Amino acid sequence: TELIPHSFQMRCKDTVIFRKKRKTKNKGVWVKTSILGYYAKKRQTTAVDRSIRIIENELQIKDTDRAIVYVDENQELTFELSGLIANKLLSQYNRPVILLRNFVNGDVHELRGSVRGKPVDGLDNLKDVMAGITGVERAEGHAFAFGLGINDELVSEFKVHLNDALSRVDF
After folding, report:
1. I want to staple 135 with a disulfide (CB 3.0 to 4.6 A). Which of 9, 38, 142, 151 is the partner?
2. In 3-state terms, what secondary structure has residue 54?
3. Model pLDDT, residue 32
């Protein structure tokens, strides 16, 4: 059972696998695991597609925008999948995607979320570019896939400076 993810073991605990010389005595758990994986992926894809429709309906994406910046004010997106949502938008629009949501913890009030981008001529590290923009409180992660926190009162300035910082990049 070490080969099977814990979440699947809970649902398929009635079937046990014994492996001996590359032969499986009971394939029931593999079938159940495949079915569970299929439906989990289907739910995930549905949630991602629904979130993208929400973003595209609310946001007017112009050719002059150097990045897509979306603030989920109504908490409608499946935010646990924000990285996947941003990746799909990145592949559709071929420019960096920033998905943000309100974050409050004590005295900290900021917008936090996911950023996805890709290396292009003139842009070697999107995280470093973001870290130098007005309003950015944190940029943590990889060069083109990272978490971002910005001051919730400086969103407009952030967007202006972001477009300016990316103006010389050809997406």
Report:
1. 151
2. helix
3. 80
